[in-house]
Amino acid sequence: MYSKLFLCGLVAFFLGVGCKSKHHQTRMEWPFVLSDATHNDLLQKAGKWLGVPYQYGGVSRAGIDCSGLVLALTESNRLPRSSRDMHKACVILSEADVRTGDLVFFSIGGKQVNHVGVVLQAPWFIHASSSSGVVINRWSEPYYAKWFTGFGRIPK
Q1: Looking at the annotation, which residues are catalytic?
Q2: Residue 142 is part of which domain span?
């Protein structure tokens, strides 16, 4: 019962606030199909981080950066701290093989990976944006598509 209430609250929050990214601002319908326990668990964790402000090197709800958010959501002890090193540690995937919990990487403004997010459901990902804090976007949005580097799966 509590998980249903939480998900209803998360839906209401998302529909009421929309996406605040300065790169792409729009109201969106809830894009996720709650398909399995792993997906539901990740959505619940993700909902608790939405709106947390960005802080370089941050690892708490007071402020968090993109790789810190990945570590918090995945609870992986197999990933290094930086997005660039995470990319090197992951198994590279094609878009057709991407699933919930995989990572999406970007090289914003440069040639090296410097941003990472967690796939919720293709093409939606959650990440800590330096301009907007923790938000949900699509990797197909023009801003993110421009800097897209690839997908990765956390090694087991």
Answers
A1: 66, 115, 127
A2: 2-153
